[in-house]
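Researcher: Good morning. I'm working through a list of sequences from a screen, and I'd like to move beyond sequence-only analysis. For each chain I'm collecting a predicted structure so we can compare shapes side by side. This is the next one on the list. No need for commentary yet; just the structure.
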Amino acid sequence: MRRLLPAAAVVAALALAASACGGGNAAGPTATVSDPSKVSGEITWWDTTRPDSEGPTFQALIKAFEAKYPQVKVKYVNVPSDQAQGQFQTAAQAGAGAPDVIRSEVAWTSQFASLGYLQPLDGTRAVDNEADFLPGPLSSTKYNGKTYAVPQVTDTLALLYNKRLLKEAGHEEAPKTIAELKQTALDVKAKTGAEGLALNVDSYFLLPFIYGEGGDLLDVANKKIVVNSPANVRAVQTVADLISSGAAPKPATTESYANAMTALKEGKAAMIYNGPWSLSEIYQGKEFKDRTNLGIAPVPAGSVKAGAPTGGWNLAIYAGSKNIPAAYEFVRFMTTVEAQAKIAKEISLLPTRTSAYADPDVKGNSDVVVFKPIMDTAVPRPWIPEGGQLFQPLLEGYQSLVGGKSAPADMLKKVDEQYHGIMKDWS
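Model: Good morning. Structure tokens for this chain:
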């Protein structure tokens, strides 16, 4: 669900940044209003949530916003998360069709800002009490010392599991290490007939294995590409071993996210890696009509540590928007403690505000309570313009590995070559 543009397409977009015609006056004066409730106009918001399980909560928030701001109309457009990045870039570059507000994945924000597509937000009404935001999510909104978005929700990955199946396989607790994960998965398969672990062939979901072996994609401080490292080879070999051993069935290279989710919901697989955004959908599955049957635990540790990536979504304003004052008010409203508490209560997405975790609606959601300490130990990703481009080569490599077309070392060598094509001045 975190698909990004192919590297070549993004590089082309970066090359066009200087001549971008859709950027408007990105560094223009800050709009102010004496009475925010009198702001008027129409704004378009591109939302990237799943329309069935998450969309209703956000549409309810829009209605609440429009009730508070009766002179502002919000046009809600749901854009699939794997298409939004490319569609926004195309529209912003063309100067036509871009939304006033976009729900931007954390890895996209600095890229869009570097291209001049986002309105700077420092000192505007869009940013309310910046000190209240968690440092990790807040850092993803910055580029060259300026603020270009407001954190809406944050996330990371955890091990989600069917307690019943693990218990039938003789395991009362979730596995804490990769070795335990493999054995638990094999026990589930042998004793219950269900698959042990359903893998999602996606770059973001490969990162816990990489971090677990002490690896990473980049060494930002030293401007080095480190994807082709011994640690990462071990990580990829671990994934390959899970498949070859039967602990995880060989996943399809496409639709693997949907396949893994379906397998968990229907009791055909006992464990998956996934984040808080998936919970509202999982609870619709027959295995989790009794919500207490779902277990949530930190991702199992590799030989070095347990580590999952920092993810999440920001709200950003298109620099070419014709209704920036209304967009400021919308972003401010959608990132309040009250809005974040409603989102956490109804669909278990993690707030980005520190004070939100003291809200009764947030404290009352046991899933959020469990995910919060996991989130606190999440591994930061590099918030650089090229950061979002790193996923596509890694995805292609992961697909090649699963498809039997490359071994771990060969896979990472090719990814390394592609990274050097993206990060041309890095060693």
